[in-house]
Design brief:
By secondary structure, this protein is mostly helical. The chain contains 4 helices and no strands. It is elongated, with a radius of gyration of 23 Å. The termini are far apart.
Length: 88
């Protein structure tokens, strides 16, 4: 495959790609032309991972309680951590 085949396959030429890359790097990318990858943010600030080790029986009980509340483990844990910080 040569450059012309690649340009034909991609639907634009190298000059167009260079212009688009430059616009993106200069924060001049047209609105509506980007796609944010991953899950949507859960807060208005950057998030960080909180990790700990507990016994398997504790995890099983925690997961069961989360299920009874219609939550995932992460949702339940996030809610409990937030509640704890609000009453601290």
């Amino acid at each position: 495959m040569d450059i012309k085949d690649l340009e034909r396959e991609l639907g634009f030429d190298i000059d167009e790609l260079e212009k688009a890359a430059e616009a993106y790097e200069n924060d001049e990318w047209p609105a509506g032309r980007t796609t944010r990858l991953g899950r949507p943010p859960i807060a208005d600030e950057p998030s960080a991972v909180l990790s700990t080790c507990v016994g398997e029986s504790v995890i099983a009980a925690f997961d069961e309680k989360a299920k009874r509340h219609g939550q995932s483990r992460t949702e339940r844990l996030r809610e409990l951590v937030l509640l704890d910080t609000l009453i601290a």
